[in-house]
Fold this sequence. Notes:
Layout: H1 2-12, H2 16-22, H3 32-41, H4 44-54, H5 63-71, H6 82-85, H7 100-106, E1 109-117, E2 120-125, E3 128-131, E4 134-137, E5 141-146, E6 160-164, E7 167-172, H8 174-194
Antiparallel strand pairs: 1-2, 1-6, 2-5, 3-4, 6-7
Amino acid sequence: MIEGLRLTFKYASCCEKMKRSFGIPDLTRNNVGKLKKIFESLDFFKYYKKIARLNNIDDLLNIRIASYYWTGYPKLNGDLYHNWTTLIPILKMPIKKIDVKMVDDCFVQAGIIMSVKGNSINVKYRPIIKSHKRLVLGKQKEKVINKGFLVKRRVQPYNWITFHFGTAIEIINTEKYLELLKISESALDKLNKNRATI
Length: 198
């Protein structure tokens, strides 16, 4: 449970809703109960429950559930990953009213480090853009993000990483990068198909 709690904390604590509602508690063993209660009140936790049920996993904070929900890896039953569930509230919204920057920030993104300077990382990734009344992954561009949860890790150019709301979360391998890219494209395809008539 602790590994799953730790990974959940890393991704969820970047969310503006969590910051506004609860602040950011310290990730310590003394705060495990408090963090669980906070997580249970946030939208994503209902998806943890569904993933657990679909995959016969008893512990809702199992590392496999947390990793699958936020990054789509390792593959589990149910298409209930963050980059899809975060789009559900905007399914019926006209394309002109969708704030692309907010969607891009809210997505769990994957990219490759180009350079590191102090507490900043210059990462190359594929941002979400509007194209022909659709949301799609655009061409690669560079973005400066903060080191976040990698501040104590040795990071260097050409490491693959994930980031959320401009905060670096994990160093990942190529397989996980490709899977996250795949589910991101799948999530946007589902959004476009479901709102194609609007």
